[in-house]
Amino acid sequence: MTTKTAVVTGSNSGIGLGAAHALAAAGYNVVINSFSDRPEDHALARVISERHSVRVAYIKADMSSGAECRALVERTVDYFGSVDVLVNNAGIQFVAPVEEFPSEKWDAIIAINLTSAFHTTAAAIPHMKSAGWGRIVNIASAHGLRASPFKSAYVAAKHGVLGLTKTVALELAEAHITCNAICPGYVLTPLVEAQIPDQMMAHNMDRETVIREVMLDKQATKEFATVEQIGATVVFLASDAAAQITGTSISVDGGWTAE
Ligand code: NAD
């Protein structure tokens, strides 16, 4: 069996790191990525490699730059010989009323959360076509299907990711390349952890109350989804069992969007 290669954008933390571990555990060689280039980023690659006995490389690339997005894919192919699974995960958040939303924050969120997936996908497709197989998994959000106030850029970007997902799926439908999205509800990652103190202050509530009554208000199970659950969903979408699943999204949101 040929070992396949997966590249996960924004994967030195949170959901991307969880997806990298899950793909490595499933036998893929993995490229992890972020915009930094610290010794601990490369050490993380060694930890994943040793834990799962696969090859793992850390490649620095800033997902706010189209050229660096494309270079990440090309460097992955240079390093491992192919790009078989592409997980577009990098993302940031910023919260403000739309009339006060700083335009540089809008631009950064659209670039990192949406446009990066266009560039990495466009760069990966020729390699996947020549291999005759490929899997593209976009980490969208429940906010790709629903809105919340003060998250205009994030909600717009995530809705855009679902539009891109469907279009790419149709274009590649006969090429044995699928493109799907995962729509997580709240997952307790550094991105979410950073919002808790502000929410505690804004609502004058303790940590447990703000988690249950504010953050998980719409998440019917009242539990966070986990990075392991998202990682397992990525591995499923990359599997042969998912060959006829394309152009759709899987919600891992504790029932949020059932309402
Ligand atoms: P996180 O902050 O833990 O991880 C974000 C990752 O993106 C980090 O590795 C970070 O280094 C990377 N990143 C940020 N800017 C980058 C850039 N310019 N270039 C390259 N990498 C960059 O957050 P997370 O919660 O793990 O989020 C991961 C994805 O999951 C995001 O797209 C987010 O929108 C989505 N998501 C998260 C949740 C949640 O509740 N945590 C819910 C739904 C969707």
TrEMBL record:
SUPFAM superfamilies named in the record: NAD(P)-binding Rossmann-fold domains
GO annotation terms (biological process): monocarboxylic acid metabolic process
GO MF terms, alphabetically ordered: 3-hydroxybutyrate dehydrogenase activity
Similarity remark: Belongs to the short-chain dehydrogenases/reductases (SDR) family.
User: Protein name, please?
Assistant: 3-hydroxybutyrate dehydrogenase
**Could you tell me which species this protein originates from?**
Phyllobacterium endophyticum
